[in-house]
Amino acid sequence: MLPTDPTKKISFTRCITDGDLVIVYERHDAMKAIKVCEDSVLQNRFGVFKHSDWIGKPFGSKVFSNKGKFVYLLAPTPELWTLVLSHRTQILYIADISFVIMYLEIVPGCLVLESGTGSGSLTTSLARAVAPTGHVYTFDFHEQRAASARLDFEQTGVSSLVTVGVRDIQGEGFPDEFSGMADSVFLDLPQPWLTIPSVGKMLKQDGVLCSFSPCMEQVQRTCESLRSNFTDIRTFEILLRTYEVRQGKMDGNRDNGGGSLPCKRKQHSIEGSNEQDNQSSAAVMARPCAEAKGHTGYLTFARLKCLS
């Protein structure tokens, strides 16, 4: 995202220019990616925003509409891009992505192989993790999907760190040119067990594989295939629980068990205010968000056995 020098260093220190991709932030659940064009405008519930007013401002700036309302202009980080990208396929979200990068031991300079590319949510985060000297080679069997991913990577500024190929990895395996070169491999395939022999050839000794599968039956067959050449086989399910925390009035006459958020009682008269104050008190209340995501898939990790 927006590398500013030939060394591929990812940075947002410069100001917004014509043609940049920005994330327009209205609130935590209302964001969209916009390409800045000097002659264009953005119209939303807050009014009309001129793109020309954005140019020259640093990322993170608050900009105002003709109605005096405002939005924030944020840099397209992998975290934000995951929330606003076009879903050509089911994507991995932040909880899974962060776990994958840690367990695959991805650091700057790594060479990572990925199949399939899909919407590119994970690929963008992988690119940042390997920057500035590493590289991600990602493959998808669907030519139009691969072409769309290339355009997205150019927009987000990671195209110098990512190469997108069109290939049926499940049927053909990874290209032989990467044999013994990959530090990590990620699979998001319907039948990942068919690819395990190819993965074993691609990985360096002690390299790590991750396979993402939505069904336990897929996990079981994958683990059976891994046991011959891999060790330290582990499967995880990442469940993220988000909480809403805010201040409210706790009614002394109500049972608020279960962590529910009480409603503020409306005062109808000044005469009854003292009695109501005695029955309620201000408190910080918390409850799980109703839209919290549940199961997304299972992550199976394995390490290639060292030859002795």
TrEMBL record:
Mainly localized where? nucleus
Instruction: Kindly state which reaction or reactions the protein catalyses.
Output: adenosine(58) in tRNA + S-adenosyl-L-methionine = N(1)-methyladenosine(58) in tRNA + S-adenosyl-L-homocysteine + H(+)
**Gene3D superfamilies listed in its UniProt record:** 3.10.330.20, Vaccinia Virus protein VP39
Q: Where is the composition biased (Polar residues)?
A: 270-282
Q: Where is the tRNA (adenine(58)-N(1))-methyltransferase catalytic subunit TRM61 C-terminal domain?
A: 69-303
According to the UniProt record, one GO cellular component term is:
nucleus
Keyword Methyltransferase attached: yes
- A Pfam family in this protein? GCD14
Q: Which InterPro entries match?
A: SAM-dependent_MTases_sf, TRM61_C, tRNA_MeTrfase_Gcd14
Q: Name one GO molecular function term.
A: tRNA (adenine(58)-N1)-methyltransferase activity
The protein's UniProt keywords, in alphabetical order, are: Methyltransferase, Nucleus, S-adenosyl-L-methionine, Transferase, tRNA processing
EC number in record: 2.1.1.220
> What domain of life?
Eukaryota
In the record, the note on similarity to other proteins reads: Belongs to the class I-like SAM-binding methyltransferase superfamily. TRM61 family.
State the protein's name: tRNA (adenine(58)-N(1))-methyltransferase
Q: Which organism is it from?
A: Acer yangbiense
